[in-house]
Structures are given as C-alpha cells and as structure tokens.
Amino acid sequence: MMSSKWEMEDSQLTFFKCTRWQLEETLDPINCPFHYFCDSIYAGDYPPITDILVFFFVSFAYMATLIIIITSTVLSRRENKAKRYLLPSGPIFLPVILLILAKGQRINTLFPVSSFGPAILQLVQVSALVFKNKIDKEVNYVFFEASTISGVLHASLYLDAVILPYYTGFDALIASTFSSVCKSCICRQEALVVGGKFVAYRAWSTTTFLVVGVLCMRIMCRLCRDEAQKKRIFLIRITVEGLAWVSLIRDGVYLAVRSPVDELMLFRVYVFGSVLLLICLHVIAKLCCLVSKRERQSANTRI
Prior knowledge:
With 303 residues, the protein is an alpha+beta fold. The chain is built from eight helices and four strands; from the N terminus they run αββααααββααα. It has a four-stranded antiparallel beta sheet. A hairpin with a 7-residue loop joins β3 and β4. The radius of gyration is 23 Å and the shape is elongated.
C-alpha cells in the first residue's frame, strides 16, 4: 500500500517535471489512439532553503510596493526616488526576479514557482503600471522605460517556460490512462497540446502586451513635441491602461480559484489576493483623486 502511494507520487513528479512528451505509434488505435511517453525531464529541485529565500525576497518586494503605494498615492505624499529602487520593476529587484523565473523549474519544494510564479509576474506588472519614472533627462527616461519593457517581456517568457510543462503534465495526468509499457506511458483519446486545456492562463498573453503598450505610450508621450498629437497619444494610453488593469484583475481572480494544486488552495488565494489588494488600493486612490479634482473644479466654477 505504501509502495503504491510512493509510486503514484513519483509518477506525478515525473509528469509535472516533463519538458517533452513524445508521441509514438499506437498498437491499439481504437482504445488508445494517442500514445505518449515522457522523453525528458528537467534537473532536480534546488534545496528548500532556496525556496525560503525566494519567498522572503518576494515578500519584501511586495511589502515595499504596498508601503510605497500607500504613502505616495493613498496618503498623497511625495514619492521618494530612492524607494523606487525597491520596486519589483526597478533596476535592482527586476534582474533578481528574472533570475528567479529563469531558474523557476528547479524552485519547486516549499514555494513552487510553477504555482506562484504568475503572482510574481503580476507584481512586476502592477509595479510598472502604478509607478512612472520621474527622470528629467529624456535619454535616461527612455533607457529605464525600455529596460522595464524588456524585463516584463523576458519575465513572461521565463514564466511560460516554467508553467507550460507543469500545466501540460497536469493535463496528461488527469485526462489520460496509464499504459503498461512504461511509468510515464499514457493513452489519450485526443492529442496532448502544450500547456494543456485545464488551465487557460499564459504569461505571454494579452495582459503582458497591454502593460508593454502602456509603457511604450509613456515614452511616446514624453518624446512627442506636438501638443495635439501628445493629447491623442495620452487618450489612447489611458484607454490601454484601463484595459491592462481589467486584464490584471481577471488573471488574478482566475488564478486564485483555478490551479492544478488543490492542497495549496488557501495559500494560493492569499498570494493572489494580496496582488489584487495592491490593484484595489491604486484604483481607489485614483478614483478619490478624480472625485476631489472634479469637486475643486466645480467649486471654482461657482466662484
């Protein structure tokens, strides 16, 4: 009994770590039209201490972002430029996050990137949208914004390299039957697709391109000299930014309730709920600013 349980857990690990599924000729085209086996798996996991360090680093980045949002937007205090280096999209933390996501397949014990990597990417995207670079020199401004754009795109690619094999393995595990040829050999009634069909989230998605679009339009607004053209770009940027926030909220809610790992349900809801809290704080602060601005305008009109 214990041995069969260990074999099942070992099979699950093989499925979740598989990086390439090989389709081979089937001997039973009626009952097993598609026969797959795992052709390669990625290297073993890093020690648990790595997961602990990643967890504390991400927690620190989150708390820094939360504090800066509260002090700069909710409390309307002037933003300290030194604090911006502590942001997930800043020049210090973003390279570390890229390294975490690039090595994410092996960070898979206590704080698996395959489950919580999307929350890390969302933290970077929220940080990039909320905080604007206030740099005087245009060359430096364009350089930092372009670096952020590159970081967001690379983070999305690295995360997909982690979660797509994981989602594919999950699909192969629950929507297939085991064959007796080998431990990872499975029979399916339909073809196995990259990323599977049970979790629709992808890092390289509409959300990422909307965030990148906002950053690109910020650069265009900064460099544009024609006021009429600048106003048109600004209106487009506001529209795209609104769509980016809606897309981020949609992804956060979806990921909080939809994931292959049921055992981490409460912690998963807590993680993605924390990111949604940042979004709500920013939206509430912006709405309050808009209401107060209109009240001042109406008061001036009456005078």
